[in-house]
Amino acid sequence: MQELAFLPAHEMAERVRLRDVSAVELLEAHLQQVARNNVRLNALVTLDEARARARAREADEALARGEVWGPLHGVPLTIKDAFETTGLRTTSGFERLADYVPKRDATVVARLKAAGAVVVGKTNLPRLALDTQTHNTVFGRTNNPWDVERTPGGSSGGGAVAVAAGMSPLEVGSDIGGSIRIPSHYCGVFGLKPTDGRIPLSGHIPGLPGTARGVRHQGVAGPLARTVEDLRLALRILSGPDGVDTEMPPVPFQEVPRRELRSYRFVWTDDFGGMPVSAQTRAALAGLARTLEGAGCVVERRTPEIDFDAVWTAWGQLLGAEVGAEIPLPARVMTALHFRSMRGDSAINRGIVRGLWGRMTDYVQALSVRDQMMAKVEDFLVGWDAWLCPVTMGAAFTHRPSGDWVEVDARRVPYMEGTCGFSNFFNLTGHPVVAMPLPPASGRTLPLGVQVVGRRWKDEALLSVAEALAEVAGPFRRPPGV
């Protein structure tokens, strides 16, 4: 039963369709993993066991009649507690929503159900998804399955833990500054931040239910999984306009065949404006570059000429302005005080606080920086299949108060730069990114990941590159003891 829980989602679906395993058996395997691991990890915060069992039985009965609901028929999975789910408590880690039970599904939830998925429960996140660790006063702290004394990252931390620990084969998270990629990196799983506009965020909290939509840029929904193929399956199911988010372009999903690894061209860097990265991160990225060269790929180390302080400030201003527009004044005040009180002088923090209280001219200027950076990255990627760079400065760090210093080898770094300084750049520009595990190395006990960045709107091509990369980077590795 435990081995069933670690199959890829697409293989689970195939085995259900072939009747090698029932949807009920799959669900029970996952519920056993929840019972085995969730008390110490605290990844799932709302378990919908009764309805999940009923749905799994219905899936098996439908299959017996010759009905296949969709590509995830009978597959159990989890949803980040930021996405509204009909009849199931959805809190976004916010005290005011501790008992909120939505009467509608977020678009991504509705699409997963229509594809035949069995929703097992909701996963933990920081308060209103606004941190790079996962803890809140409603449900407490989530722990990393590789070391419970360390953070799984945030904000989709509960989902990454659920996937890594066999409690879910597929999770839908959200990402406005690294919230899919950071937890994927810290927990050793795969995550896709799609192009801004590919997957609807409709029904995501924040904004608070019943309020006007503030987040118009940078925030995306996307999957976390244990294989690239499952990321592709999820993109196929989740992408496209929903009639609610009126700004989503009708970009159809297109299959892009994977080429031979040696045919790809990669550019890589471990330097974003002189930010420190751990020696292990540098060694892992350089090792991957050497491996790719040995496989016949064209590989070059290069960094575009970017003013990263301007990037971090503009990202913070847009985040502060748009998220701030969605939350009540008291919460906005507390958010501003929180980021202002963080240790160290940080361009990101200054930008967020300025955005929370900024003028329209500041907001428009941040959008202008976004336009410039988007064009620079697009120009930089001409002639390359992907850009490889760090996800964060290093591996998962020990739990600490939000805003405390983050250590990179022997150096202390401000909290936000230390966690999302490498990832939020691609929220600003809207480029698609796959976060995927790097190969294990002698003396390293924690996972490390890499960001694989592609051209805007070329998500399917990027996934094909990532699948080829996985040939040399290796598959998902199960954390010890789960």
TrEMBL record:
Classification via Pfam families: Amidase
Gene3D superfamilies: Amidase signature (AS) domain (3.90.1300.10)
Domain Amidase: 25-463
Superkingdom of the organism of origin: Bacteria
Record-linked InterPro entries: Amidase_dom, AS_sf, FAAH2
GO CC field: endomembrane system
GO molecular function: transferase activity
Alphabetized PANTHER family for the sequence: FATTY-ACID AMIDE HYDROLASE, FATTY-ACID AMIDE HYDROLASE 2
Protein name in UniProt: Aspartyl-tRNA(Asn) amidotransferase subunit A
Lineage: Bacteria, Pseudomonadati, Myxococcota, Myxococcia, Myxococcales
